[in-house]
Amino acid sequence: MAYIQVPEGVPGIRSLVMFRPETGKHLYDLAQALLRGESPLTEAERELIAAYVSYRNDCMFCWSSHAAASRCLYGDEKNIVDEVLNDMHRSNVSDKMKALLNIAGKVQILGKEVTDEDIAEARKHGADDRTLHDTVLIAASFSMFNRYVDGLASFTPTDPVVYEEMGKRMAKGYVLPQQQ
Amino acid sequence: MAYIQVPEGVPGIRSLVMFRPETGKHLYDLAQALLRGESPLTEAERELIAAYVSYRNDCMFCWSSHAAASRCLYGDEKNIVDEVLNDMHRSNVSDKMKALLNIAGKVQILGKEVTDEDIAEARKHGADDRTLHDTVLIAASFSMFNRYVDGLASFTPTDPVVYEEMGKRMAKGYVLPQQQ
């Protein structure tokens, strides 16, 4: 049970933004701009970075839902998502995505972990300023979402089918849920 | 020098949101709602939580600027800020604030670190649902801001006078800087 009184049965961050829509609105707007707005990274790639960071932060609600959204957006290539979560370095993502996921993993630990060499490696494989910016901000923002969701012990479903449905909805975009 | 090409000489997060105002807008709106909007916590207390988390994340730009904003808002009681940064448990903040800062420190590590006992201790000293919510979201959001600022190696001034001036501006609120 969540540490504060949120709408019953509503999972994860949805229950928290319904408790406090004044801040929730900006959290959903940020997710929409960052994960669905214009970017050199595809929506599938951005969801993969979100899932990867959330998995490293052991936030089951966030990694399960964003992995589901990423699988949905990758379509026929959806196996890539589980490969990355299981072992990113041995997965079949491109060298560019490996370099970006490496940066995201450093940001997940702490901002200062990112080095000149990490950035140079990503640039070598074609990452431009906007790609680097979006990678770091996605990793940073999920360091927030994960802590918000677990820090208040919000409801975390365990049925994979629930996440599959959630992923389909999320693939269409992030819209603040209405209050009950 | 920052890892991406941001406006020269502009410090910290300001340079990053000028690079990408589409996401920057929501980051500033979130800070304004969370740190200046209606809350059972005073603005000084909320800035103190932000400074405390940023200090623990070793993000000099964020802790220096939010400590300055908190000192400005605490006025005659401004010494409390440095007491908390030096040794929270021995500082002269109330038992309620100690319980909330303890929760913020747990969130800084990871959401799951927060326990039923941490929440019960805060409630014992009068913290309600909104107080707990805002404490966790401030701690979570600074886990993002800190990583964004340091993960892209944005410009970090070292002169305390610069932060004092910044704190006075921040005490008035968070408004997205215009692009140069």
Describe the protein's architecture and organization.
- Two copies of one chain form a homodimer.
- Chain A is mainly alpha-helical.
- Chain A has helices spanning 12-19, 21-36, 43-56, 60-74, 79-87, 95-109, 116-124, 129-151, 160-171.
- In chain A, helix 3 packs across helix 8 (129-151).
- Chain A is globular, with a radius of gyration of 16 Å.
- The two termini of chain A are 18 Å apart.
- At the A-B interface, helix 2, helix 6 and helix 8 of A face helix 2, helix 6 and helix 8 of B.
Low-confidence segments of chain A, given as residue ranges, are: none
Count of DSSP E strands of chain A? 0
For the sheet with most strands of chain A, the description reads: none
Q: Mean of the pLDDT scores of chain A?
A: 96
Computed over alpha carbons, the radius of gyration of chain A is 16 Å
Helix content of chain A: 55-70%
Topology:
2 copies of one chain form a homodimer.
Chain A: H1 12-19, H2 21-36, H3 43-56, H4 60-74, H5 79-87, H6 95-109, H7 116-124, H8 129-151, H9 160-171
Helix pairs in contact in A: 1-2, 3-4, 3-6, 3-8, 4-5, 4-9, 6-7, 6-8
